[in-house]
User: Fold this.
Amino acid sequence: MFTKLVLISFILTILTSYAIGDKLTISQTQTSSWSVNGQPFTVWEAKVTNTGSRIIYDATIIGESNLELENIWSLEQKSSNKFSFPKFISQNSGLKNGTYFTFGYINKSSQSAIFSVCDIIN
Assistant:
């Protein structure tokens, strides 16, 4: 019984360290807006911050909703709504704890896109 408890405790510790070790947050700020024939356009600066404890070399950033791209920069586009880190992140030793990079985009909407993160590579 004691051995099983120790094993379960060990597994939970490992799972928790992985969950805590790989964390990215994305915050966004609107920097400009205009309208053409009633169509709103907004410019957004997104800040991707490593809030975990391990270095992150890449991740997939997914536009989950409200992504009506006119243009995007400082991300590698994988498909219409999937992106990865720019190459300079991995070439410069990754994104360390507390550091960030920014990307920007023009959205054909008055609202920001909703992004999620998956497939984090350490």
